[in-house]
Amino acid sequence: PTVLNCSHTFCESCIYVWTNRSKRCPTCSVIIDSKSLCLTLDSFIEKIVEHLPQEFKQKRTMEKKDRNKIKIDEQLAFENRVDHRLNVIDIEALIRMEALLEAETQWMAMDLANRRYYQRIRHFQNEL
Question: Which ranges does the record mark as transmembrane (predicted)?
Answer without folding.
Answer: none
